[in-house]
Specification:
mainly alpha; 113 residues
Length: 113
């Protein structure tokens, strides 16, 4: 059974939630990168010197690399390489909070409040 489309009518497939879905997807990607960065930091403390040989450390490093690259690109040259992880953690945290606020605002607008 097909629903007929009238000129000017809105689709009932959920097109009014597209922006919310985009924000939620971006927030999940930021969370994955954030948790990978936190896990990489924990593993950096535990094994000590041989962390570059640890398979799980290398996997988390690969997952967190987009956040690391953005933090390196944004931060000024005088920020040491060993502190870029903290910059990335801060930026991802701010982005995560910002996306949570944007999700609330867009949800309220879509609900008509």
């Amino acid at each position: 059974m097909r629903a007929s489309c009238k000129a000017g009518s809105r689709s009932t497939i959920g097109s009014d939630r597209v922006l919310t879905d985009v924000i939620v997807t971006l927030r999940v990607l930021v969370e994955i990168c954030l948790f990978a960065l936190i896990g990489q930091g924990i593993l950096a403390v535990l094994p000590g010197v041989d962390r570059e040989k640890n398979v799980f450390y290398l996997i988390l490093k690969t997952i967190a690399s987009p956040g690391w690259r953005v933090a390196r690109w944004i931060s000024p040259r005088f920020v040491l390489e060993q502190h870029v992880g903290w910059v990335a953690l801060f930026l991802l945290g701010v982005l995560w909070i910002g996306l949570a606020i944007a999700k609330q605002i867009v949800g309220a607008i879509e609900a008509g409040v």
